[in-house]
Design brief:
Shape: globular
CATH architecture: Sandwich
Largest sheet: 9 strands, mixed
Bound molecules: protoporphyrin IX containing FE
Number of helices: 1
CATH superfamily: Cellobiose dehydrogenase, cytochrome domain
Number of domains: 1
CATH class: Mainly Beta
Structural class: mainly beta
Length: about 230
């Protein structure tokens, strides 16, 4: 486990792309404790260019009851050269929740979208986001989103109900564009098509938080999260 001291620590993030590897990658997520928000995240780095990564971090409640929906906290750290970064929770662009985030001055905007084809995704009401009071910022090199999502890990896809197992690894899709959204303060801003799309395998089990609800409270979110284990554990 290692600690991360905000996005300043990520100024040296740019790394070369790894050597060629087999198509079916093992999950390479690592556990990261974010000192600013207190959440333990599972982290996966995704290549935005040959020399820059987007960092996707996901925190889950520990001990989610089997089959139950659950909230997550998503943290995205992107170089300022990234105009928008998208995560496709079902591992492809079509018929699964898409989370798009972008810088908005010193703050960040997050947007829930859904695509029915390989064309501009529409707003999606099945996933809702609340920005945490900490962890949303930008500096001279990076911007960072930190938001709770209700509805990112369960949805109805092309083949019926889907639920991401919080104890397992899952292939996710991602995409990004250098060009910026036209109206960065709006979650429904139009976005330019991606320059890059690819896939990551994310280990959800590496981001479990026994004190998920308490951490949300510390970060300005007081409602009880969906799938909060403390509702069920005695
Ligand atoms: C302006 C909005 C967008 C347009 C016009 C668009 C268009 C397209 C097109 C035409 C392809 C097929 C490319 C090919 O076959 O070579 C594609 C693939 C893909 N897009 Fe998008 N896209 C948009 C937004 C997004 C967003 C927000 C995401 C979120 C992660 C995303 C994720 C992907 C992924 C993962 C693929 C790979 C194919 C797949 O897995 O379905 N796209 N997109």
């Amino acid at each position: 486990m290692r600690s991360v001291f905000g996005i300043v620590a990520l100024a040296g993030l740019a790394v070369g792309r790894p050597a060629p590897e087999p198509l079916l990658l093992e999950a390479r997520a690592v556990t990261v404790v974010d000192q600013e928000t207190g959440f333990t995240f599972s982290e996966t780095k995704a290549a935005a260019t040959l020399s820059a990564n987007i960092v996707f971090r996901i925190a889950t409640p520990a001990n989610v009851p089997a089959g139950q929906p659950y909230d997550i906290v998503l943290q995205v750290v992107a170089p300022n050269s990234v105009g928008w970064a998208g995560l496709a929770w079902g591992g492809s662009m079509v018929r699964n929740p898409l989370t798009v985030s972008y810088a908005n001055g010193q703050r960040t905007t997050v947007s829930a979208r859904w695509a029915t084809g390989h064309s501009t995704p529409q707003a999606y009401s099945g996933a809702t986001f609340t920005l945490l009071s900490k962890g949303n910022k930008s500096n001279g090199t990076h911007w960072q989103l930190t938001a709770k999502c209700t509805g990112c890990t369960t949805w109805t896809g092309s083949s019926g109900a889907v639920r991401i197992d919080p104890r397992d690894s899952k292939r996710l899709g991602y995409a990004c564009a250098a060009a910026k959204p036209s109206n960065p303060s709006s979650p429904t801003s139009s976005i330019p098509v991606h320059d890059v799309y690819n896939y990551i395998t994310h280990d959800f089990s590496a981001g479990a938080n026994a004190n998920f609800a308490a951490l949300l409270t510390q970060n300005g979110i007081s409602e009880v999260p969906t799938g909060n284990a403390t509702l069920f554990d005695n």
